[in-house]
Amino acid sequence: MSLYPQNYRTLRPHWLRRIAFASLGVVLLYWPFALLTRALLWATGTPLLPDAHRICMRMPIQWLAQPWMYGTMIQQPLYLGSVLVLPAIALFVGPLFCGWLCPAGGITEYLSRLVPTRFQIDLSGKVNPVPLRYGFTGGMMIASFVGANVCCSFCNFTYTQNLISSIFGDFTGIAYWASFMIAGFVLWFFVLGLFTRGGRGWCNFLCPAGALQGLSHSLGRWLRIGRSVQIDQSLCRNCKTCVSTCPTWAISNKEGQTQINVHGCNVCMDCAKGCEHQAIAYKANKREPTHVETTEPVHA
Amino acid sequence: MKRMGTYSLAIFGFAFAIGFGLWAQSLFTVSELMHFSVNFPSEGRAEAMSCCNVGGPWARDYGDDWSDYPEGGLLAYGEEGALVVDLGQQGFLKRTLQPNFISISSHWLRNVGTQPYRVRLEMDMCDLEMDWLTFERDWDQASQTTTRYIEAGDTYNMDWFFKLLPAQRNQTVICEGELRIIDADTSTLLTDLPVKIVNSAVN
């Protein structure tokens, strides 16, 4: 039983950097800090108190299927974060928010490293999370048309805010959770978080904000604009270290070739930092690729 | 085969979202974390005029004939009537883990009149232990009054959290209360909404 990947010592400084960025995400977006949210509320003259809900990452995605809500999104620019700002960033540099800043994804990933792997579900290479995540996002977008509610009732950003609030002495959110929130929390934090290899099961399967950014990132790769994580096959020794390191199960090794599923990559750079052969790098998409990438299901 | 697997996963994700959403909505509308909207003023008609339903203005399809928010006394969203929280219809997890922590929430106390109002809110709920919470910045809890004027067409948010005693829970009708929205400047009642907490599981 190994508690950490074999290249733990190599990755430790990198993980500490990522944890620092995820903490910055808390400071920027979550009560009681929410510095970015406060600045945007002040700039837009919005008379609301700051917490994770003010820059909602889910409702605007649902509204994409509701054209009559476009005016609201334009009038209240805080709603443009998940449907415009983050996808625009992802188009050029990848889903950096997911891999580096998102506390909701980071908290389960980092805590999952403390759980022995023998207690964890390993779905890497067994299930391709990408179509499931796109399917879930589609379902969330049309849910309100069939009298269902997903975006607010199933929100890991809320769970994270409630956890952070409780650390600062406000237990109201947790004490008053509804059944669907309790179920969602267990799924996010335990089943798909701590007890799933990589700790990013929720991100991989059920995050619409991540899905939108993954789609945008793949578009940038297809258009050969911006940057992405790429593998130099001439340097790759097929050691599969990157496959076991990737928290989003986006890397596979098939028939002697290591591949990155650009839809699932969140540009966390764990693979690049952990590669002893320097075969993986974050490079401009303009060059003719010396790597192989795939949008096909990942199978190790 | 690979393509079939991909489509199957996508359909599974889609169905999971819809299924979970329907389950959540079935609890949202009857017993847990109930969201509702209230329009004010009702032009002197102090009668039930709001709804208990999840969603909000974004869930409403305006339709071709929609031109503006309706006059006071009409619904902007949902069904007319009192807000009824039925503890007997709580989900298994809520009933097992937090059965006596009840919350209701209105993101949409909406001014459907033609002039701005600064309002005072009164939640008369049988002396149940209760907390107020809002994400509005302009709120004075001591006087339960908004410290800004709510413009015509604008909305205001307020959540209420009730903590029941076990003995209170074991009643068919736990409380028949009322939310009152009052013009803070003139003390005129703008509208009210009956709020009932019942437990249909008690024989």
Summed up, what is this model?
The complex is a heterodimer of chains A (300) and B (203). Helices cover 50% and strands 7% of the residues of chain A.
Q: What features would you describe in this structure?
A:
The complex is a heterodimer of chains A (300) and B (203). In chain A, 50% of the residues lie in helices and 7% in strands. By secondary structure, chain A is mostly helical. Chain A folds into two domains: 8-216, no CATH class; 226-294, 2-Layer Sandwich (Alpha-Beta Plaits), CATH 3.30.70. In chain A, the strands form two sheets. In chain A, strands 2-3-5 form a three-stranded mixed beta sheet. In chain A, strands 1-4 form a two-stranded antiparallel sheet. In chain A, a hairpin with a 2-residue loop joins strand 2 (251-254) and strand 3 (257-261). In chain A, helix 1 runs antiparallel to helix 7. Chain B starts with a helix and ends in a 5-residue tail after the last strand. Mean pLDDT of chain B is 82; it is low at 44-79. Chain B has a four-stranded mixed beta sheet, with no helix packed on it. In chain B, strands 2-10-9-4 form a four-stranded mixed beta sheet, with no helix packed on it. A two-stranded antiparallel sheet of chain B has the order 6-7. Chain B has three helices and ten strands. Chain B has helices spanning 2-28, 92-97, 166-169, and strands at 34-40, 83-86, 101-111, 119-124, 129-133, 139-140, 145-146, 155-163, 173-183, 189-198. Chain B has a single domain (31-198), classed as Immunoglobulins (Immunoglobulin-like), CATH 2.60.40.10. Chains A and B meet through helix 3, helix 8 and helix 11 of A and helix 1, helix 2 and strand 3 of B.
